[in-house]
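Message: Just now I want nothing more than another pair of eyes on a protein record. I am handing you a single protein, as its sequence and its fold in token form. As I understand it, each token names a local backbone shape. Take your time, and here it is.
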Amino acid sequence: MNESTTYHIPVLLKESVDALVGNDEGTYVDTTFGGGGHSREILSRLGENGRLFSFDQDADAEENALKKREDGICLSTDPRWTFVRSNFRYLKNWMRYHGIDGVDGILADLGVSSHHFDDESRGFSFRFDGPLDMRMNKRGGTTAADIVNDYEEERIADILFLYGELRQSRKIAREIVKARERGRIATTHGLLAAVENCFPREREKKDITRLFQALRIEVNHEMDALRDMLLSAQEVLNPGGRLVVITYHSLEDRMVKNIMKTGNIEGKQQQDFFGRVQTPYNLIVNKPIVPSAEEQEENPRSRSAKLRIAERKEDEK
């Protein structure tokens, strides 16, 4: 097994890149580099004049990008490839910085890298007892520990309800506040101990997963970043360019579906004089593509994945 696979197993690899690359001499963006699986596959489809920009704000991903794999391939030596260490919400600004007027495709594999879940020092998983961190970008910012220890009870409850869709969000927030009065909650298992009586046994694992998801989204401002990237994509994509997005939970999926169907985050349809919905995109598939049973068996992360694909309409004359 090579290093890129060990670091992170890409989801819907063939399906997403098949949908993305239509011009082998075009310019493409992988907004979520992670372990580089999608980026390497994109580059394998491009000719000598093709270009790929890969975004990731995480230092581990950048370090992984510079490693030489067992087959001798090192992305940093490929003149067609550029790594951008930044949050993908700044997509438009970085394309302007690099002198790119338009791109032919944008790919986003949302959620968390399997590397992050497997690194106990990052605090993304409740499988390990580690620091309650959850920052994608370790250079600064609020940690999950800051949220559970410093936010007011009502604000914690709102975050858990909005980003985790937890019905018992107020009870969980109340128990967190009680626990922190006895001492700072600094670790993942410290958080689990604080909320251990909040979940029905039959839903415990699923609800704890949602609890960690909600904190992670708040720590990394994920929904705001996704909104900014999706809006930027409308300006950056060339006519006929593809927007390909892999989502993992309903909040992401709803936002992506709305932007592709209506051109806005809220999903509000605007119609022209003839009653046609005004949107900058044509949907390539009406229903999302999901991983095969074989892929779901091999890669548990893929089980909730949905692939949505849209093409930017030609400019009206």
Observations:
- The beta strands are 27-30, 51-55, 81-84, 103-109, 237-247, 281-283, 306-312.
